[in-house]
Backbone:
């Protein structure tokens, strides 16, 4: 009997799809609890599935310790393969759902900020109500990584990159401005000159922000050296400026009126960021992704 089983394994290799899906969900969430909610199953069921996969092949996919859950080297290698398997599964579902000409399914949209994407998402939802849209915000580096890892389907970012695996559509350019709180001496002005930022306390975005990269390049070119007192995520910049900790930077696309904040243009040497819609080139013809790209191209032509 054992010989027969080995012969079957050699001639017809397979993996239990439910077990693989359970592993993939846990690896994606790095949590059995979150993965169980994602798959709408009980956590004990998920644990049994993953352990069965490990025991079936005599491997350890996760390292469990007091520090939390980690993937083993084997687990990381299997996760990379599983990503591609479930990516193809999504494409198969999209195909089957769209045979009647309707665009349906799910679209995971990454963005460097909600203000950059909401107009497109609104248009997309009106045009394709059968598609469920999920948003994921990150900085430009994070957005790029998630596209390459197939964690998101399309993304709006400031840098399309030069990776041949990516396809991009340029949306437009956005001026970088600064902003101060209402008690700042500059709050009575509409603009300042770049040299006035020299030595000023500034609240910068975190590393990887295209807005930060753009204004720092301009300041370096003209010998302007501000005093960077903090580097924090986008929303924290607003709060720090409100508290009077320094001058913040913002893309014009992200400016929102607030009684405690006042934006100013840099009149003589403005900086600009770009916005692009990106996706994996191999996936650009997936129906929901292609529909989103079409809307992005239409918006770009209308600018």
Residues:
């Amino acid at each position: 009997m054992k010989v027969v089983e080995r012969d079957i394994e050699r001639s017809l290799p397979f993996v239990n799809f439910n077990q693989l899906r359970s592993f993939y969900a846990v690896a994606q969430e790095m949590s059995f609890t979150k993965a169980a909610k994602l798959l709408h199953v009980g956590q004990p069921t998920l644990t049994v599935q993953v352990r069965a996969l490990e025991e079936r092949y005599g491997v350890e996919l996760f390292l469990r310790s007091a520090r939390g859950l980690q993937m083993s080297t084997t687990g990381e290698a299997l996760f990379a393969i599983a990503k591609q398997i479930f990516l193809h599964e999504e494409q198969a579902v999209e195909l089957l759902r769209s045979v009647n000409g309707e665009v349906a399914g799910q679209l995971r949209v990454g963005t460097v900020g909600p203000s950059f994407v909401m107009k497109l998402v609104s248009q997309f939802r009106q045009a394709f109500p059968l598609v469920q849209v999920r948003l994921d915000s990150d900085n430009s580096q994070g957005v790029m990584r998630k596209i390459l890892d197939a964690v998101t389907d399309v993304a709006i970012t400031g840098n399309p990159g030069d990776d041949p695996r990516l396809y991009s559509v340029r949306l437009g350019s956005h001026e970088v401005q600064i902003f101060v709180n209402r008690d700042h001496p500059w709050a009575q002005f509409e603009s300042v000159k770049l040299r006035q930022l020299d030595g000023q306390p500034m609240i910068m975005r975190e590393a990887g922000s295209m807005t930060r990269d753009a204004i720092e390049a301009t300041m370096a070119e003209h010998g302007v050296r501000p005093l960077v007192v903090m580097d924090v995520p986008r929303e924290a910049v607003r709060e720090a400026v409100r508290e009077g900790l320094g001058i913040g930077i913002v893309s014009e696309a992200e400016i929102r009126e607030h009684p405690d904040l006042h934006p100013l243009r840099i009149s003589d040497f403005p900086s600009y960021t770009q916005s692009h819609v990106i996706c994996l080139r191999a996936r650009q013809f997936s129906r929901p992704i292609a529909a989103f790209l079409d809307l992005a191209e239409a918006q770009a032509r209308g600018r």
Q: What stands out?
A: The radius of gyration is 24 Å. Residues 1-5 have pLDDT under 50 and may be disordered. Residues 107 and 133 are 5 Å apart (CA to CA). The domain at 89-169+275-301 is CATH 3.40.190.10 (D-Maltodextrin-Binding Protein; domain 2).
